[in-house]
Structures are given as C-alpha cells and as structure tokens.
Write a sequence for this structure.
C-alpha cells in the first residue's frame, strides 16, 4: 500500500441520504484518497443537517490524519451507529478536511454525485 494522502475538491454536486432523508447536499465536497483505498467524499459540516446526527463516544486514530470523532445518524425508524466521522483537529496532511464529515458506505447511507 502506498503511504500518502491526496485531497482535492470533488467535482460536481454531492448528496448524502440516510433513512429516506437528505442529510446534505454540496458543491464544496472534498475527495480524500489514501494509498490504495477507495476515495472518500467529505462534506462541509455547514452543508449537513446536523440535527440528524448525535455525537458518539467512539474515536479512532490514523497516524496520517489524526484522531477521528464519530456520529450516529438518527432516522425515523432507527439509529445508524457510528456511520459518520470527522477529523476535528487533523494532522497537516489532512488539514483540508477540518470541519468536514465523511459517511460510511453502508446499505442505509448513500453518498452520490448528482
């Protein structure tokens, strides 16, 4: 695996949906590529309906990006645990995604370019 991170502005407009609701839409998304992993789209926090998100106690650490904080998405029918993360105090390699949110690719969550 290649040991580097590339972050660039994602082209076009992106939307994230969960539980039948649109959580956000933006034309200011960032695309983060880390080594051989698939690209991850990060949404500006200001373009996400934060009322649907509950902060979680879960955290994780990446040696290149820093400490991630997680959120759960509350839908009409259930809570999707820890499907959102954010690097709130990222390392320099990930500074461009400060104040951005990423969403796990699970059945109940869709991140799509429109």
């Amino acid at each position: 695996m290649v040991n580097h991170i590339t972050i660039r502005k994602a082209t076009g407009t992106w939307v994230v949906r969960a539980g039948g609701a649109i959580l956000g839409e933006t034309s200011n998304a960032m695309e983060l590529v880390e080594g051989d992993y698939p690209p991850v789209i990060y949404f500006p926090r200001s373009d996400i309906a934060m009322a649907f998100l509950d902060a979680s106690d879960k955290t994780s650490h990446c040696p290149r990006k820093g400490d991630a904080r997680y959120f759960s998405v509350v839908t009409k029918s259930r809570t999707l645990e820890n499907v959102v993360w954010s690097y709130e105090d990222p390392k320099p390699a990930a500074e461009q995604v400060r104040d951005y949110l990423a969403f796990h690719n699970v059945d109940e969550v869709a991140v799509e370019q429109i």
Observations:
- The CA atoms of residues 35 and 59 lie 22 Å apart.
- The mean pLDDT is 94.
- The beta strands are 5-9, 14-18, 21-26, 30-34, 40-44, 53-62, 66-74, 79-86, 100-103, 109-113.
